[in-house]
Amino acid sequence: MRDEPRRGSLLVIFLTVFIDLLGFGMVLPLLPIYADVFAEDPSGWRLGVLMASFSVMQFLFAPLWGRLSDRIGRRPVLIIGLAGSVVFYLLFGVATVMRSLSLLLVARVGAGIAGATIATAQAYIADTTSLEKRSKGMALIGMAFGLGFTFGPLVGFLAVPGGRGEPGPWPGYAAAILSAVALVLAIWKLPESLRPDSRAATARIAHLHEFRQAMSVPSVGLLLAAIFVCIFSFANFETTLSLLIKGSAEAEHGPFHFGWGQVCLTYAYIGLTMTVVQGVLVRRLAGRVPEGRLAGSGALLQVIGFIIVLVATERASAPLLMAALGVITAGAGLMQPNLNSLLSRRSDPEKQGAIMGVGQSVNSMARILGAGLGIPMLKIAITLPYYVCMGLMAAGLLLVVVAARGGRDYRQRDA
Q1: Which among 199, 401, 161, 405 is positioned nearest to 300, based on CA atoms?
Q2: Average pLDDT, the chain
Q3: Are 411 and 131 in contact (CB under 8 A)?
Q4: Could you tell me the pTM of the whole model?
Q5: Pairwise CA distance, residues 261 & 242, whole Å
Q6: How far apart are CA 23 and CA 87, in angstroms?
Q7: Phi, psi for 286 (deg, rounded to 5)
Q8: What are phi and psi of 29, to 5 degrees?
Q9: For residues 37 and 248, is the Cβ–Cβ distance under 8 A?
């Protein structure tokens, strides 16, 4: 029987993830626009590579960080990741001053490596929560994400005080400062969650071992497939949104022409919606409604939301677009923590770091493809990414339903 979590340790994890994501949230909505200003990119592929680079590194490093945390503990891995975030967000600010797309790419690669420790934070939650309270714990991380994406874009708005004009380096500098605060917080206040007798005795070398280990459980394989399809769809939407609403070169004939400040405020609205759904709705429903049902409801909401996006784009209706964003984000807020909770419940507790790292890698691979293909699709037709999102999320809904009904908790299988 696993010990109940100490409120202090969960609070520190929440604050650590929140401050780290605050830095990420202030950079994300402006990144495609920075690149659009700094370089000519008629095909959209260079920007697609820039957007995908962060997730490529997460795909490669999340299992490594997770496996390392199974050996040496969660705390040191989280501290290393936060230290890397300080360095590479600072480099992001320098790249902005130099107007260098290449240096921006280096900064995003480094930030992706450092940010791949989110799976370790999820494993920390798994270490300190019972199976019955696991979805509540995962929703706590989701709430930290949501708050980071709410206040991050608002801080990013300070880079363009007048709401228009070219943004400066301060989003990168501010992200570095905030990550430094999280680093100090983790060093001084974050206790270790992994018991010494639970740490893996040996180090495994290849990612393939973790993938084979995860896929050996049929329901876990289905969950990973559901995570991949659903996150691919959401990443496709997420990485094209700022160009759609900004009216830049990629969407100069589009219906929306938001200013810099309005772009940041739009992402803040998305983050606030995510926070309310995960911090209030999911945590209230956890334990009362099965995770599979909540995840399936979230996928269905996103299908509906993408249909509304298409209608809003056709009608050039900003209010309808805002309604669509709320529906899509609410769906993602319901779906993501519950899929992570199901993945954790069906995994060996002694290998939580590695398995959650596999889940994060699948998440990252989906983001790689979503980010890399979304912007070129926007070049072909302004609505094409959202038709793809709608179809993929419909397939994701089917996978969620099948995965939820097709497996049991790890403890039940071993009994």
Answers
A1: 401
A2: 77
A3: yes
A4: 0.71
A5: 11
A6: 12
A7: -60, 130
A8: -65, -25
A9: no
Q: What is the dihedral of CA 51, 52, 54, 56, to 10 degrees?
A: -170
Q: What gap in Å lies between CA 125 and CA 122, rounded to an integer?
A: 5
Q: Report the DSSP beta bridge partners of residue 286.
A: 289
Alpha helices in 99-203 (DSSP H): 101-115, 118-127, 134-156, 170-189
Q: In Å, what is the CA distance from 284 to each residue of 44, 174, 338?
A: 42, 34, 13
What is the tens place of the pLDDT at every residue in 331-365? 988 888 888 888 877 766 666 666 776 777 787 78
Q: How many CA atoms lie less than 13 Å away from 114 in the CB half-sphere?
A: 26
Q: 329: which residues sit within 8 A by CB, 6+ positions away? A: 270, 273, 274, 277, 305
Taking 50 as the pLDDT cut, the residues of the chain under it are: 1-5, 200-206, 249-251, 412-415
User: Quick one: fold of 7-191+208-414?
Assistant: Growth Hormone; Chain: A; (1.20.1250)
- Rounded CA gap, 85 and 114, in Å? 6
H-run or E-run covering 374? helix 352-380
Side chain identity at 172, as an amino acid letter? G
- The whole-angstrom separation of Cα 119 and Cα 58 is 10
Distance between CA 124 and CA 349 in Å, rounded? 11
* Residue 50 CA: distances (Å) to CA of 57, 114, 171, 224, 412: 12, 16, 17, 25, 44
Q: What residue has token string 């890698």? A: 361
Residue reference for tokens 């029987």? 1
Domain range annotation of the chain: 7-191+208-414
pLDDT in tens, 57-114: 877 887 788 778 888 888 898 899 889 989 998 998 898 888 888 888 899 889 888 8
